[in-house]
């Protein structure tokens, strides 16, 4: 039987390795929020333009992922969560990832501009730049505010989708951006609480490393409190409505309850139950964002937005 370690060191990559290089889980969130931003806009979009726009936004998200993996391959080798990725495991060379990321960046931005408009393309280009240069190369390794500021990179897709449909930026797209931006810190910090030594081993100044777990728990509660009014505010714009407001009230009540439970815990209790509460809150944070944007989509259907071309 072939030695798995020998295969991993051979540099022979399969199709799945190149897919993994594009961070498909992150890409799925990019695609979904961009699509919602496009369909929530109060204008009709031709189905071909919508399809191609979302495709090129997805490619741009994949480009960001490949460039991030290229840059972070050194710390990915250290962290247990990431050491199996294509580059640290030896299946893909760093230069391949760099070339793929740069190529997809140029293709995605150029084709999005040609397929829709150049504002949307410029926003996509800035998103890639922000994620790779501002977050990955600068903030991630220098400040515990890495997630706070860097969260903007993941918040741009609905703005890009909105720009594809309308050719502009509005309070609605800004609020969709703000929802993801404010959601990102409590989402990632709840993960950091039960990742234990990974970030410390990789010398990444995550808040849990620089300020300790007690401070991180306080930050999660504060940011969740700040998130709730941002989420609810979107319900009073053209992308909101009774369905969205009802869903947001319930989701924020649950998220705040979870953040409160995290804040009240000490490390001895968390260690004893293997960070069960923190893991539940992290898992719910994913549901929280998905259901908010699903509610935007329901309201778009009820309003008849973005469907005229369909």
TrEMBL record:
* Gene3D superfamilies per the UniProt record, alphabetical: UbiA prenyltransferase
Q: Where is the protein localized?
A: Cell membrane
What does the UniProt function comment say about this protein?
A: Converts heme B (protoheme IX) to heme O by substitution of the vinyl group on carbon 2 of heme B porphyrin ring with a hydroxyethyl farnesyl side group.
Query: Where the protein is mainly located, per its record?
Result: membrane
Named in its record, the pathway it takes part in is: Porphyrin-containing compound metabolism; heme O biosynthesis; heme O from protoheme: step 1/1
Instruction: Give any extra note attached to this record.
Output: Carbon 2 of the heme B porphyrin ring is defined according to the Fischer nomenclature.
Q: Where is the signal peptide?
A: none
InterPro entries, alphabetically? Protohaem_IX_farnesylTrfase, UbiA_prenyltransferase, UbiA_prenylTrfase_CS, UbiA_sf
For membrane topology, the record states: Multi-pass membrane protein
Please name the source species.
Acidimangrovimonas pyrenivorans
Extract the NCBIfam families matched here: cyoE_ctaB, PRK04375.1-2
Which EC numbers characterise this protein's activity in its record?
Answer: 2.5.1.141
Name the domain of life: Bacteria
Identification of the protein by name: Protoheme IX farnesyltransferase
Instruction: Kindly state the subunit structure of this protein.
Output: Interacts with CtaA.
- Residues that span the membrane, as ranges: 26-43, 49-71, 92-112, 118-139, 146-165, 171-194, 220-237, 243-263, 284-305
Q: Which family does it belong to?
A: Belongs to the UbiA prenyltransferase family. Protoheme IX farnesyltransferase subfamily.
Which catalytic reaction applies to this protein? heme b + (2E,6E)-farnesyl diphosphate + H2O = Fe(II)-heme o + diphosphate
What keywords are annotated for this sequence in UniProt? Answer: Cell membrane, Heme biosynthesis, Membrane, Transferase, Transmembrane, Transmembrane helix
Any Pfam family:
UbiA
Q: Name one GO molecular function term.
A: protoheme IX farnesyltransferase activity
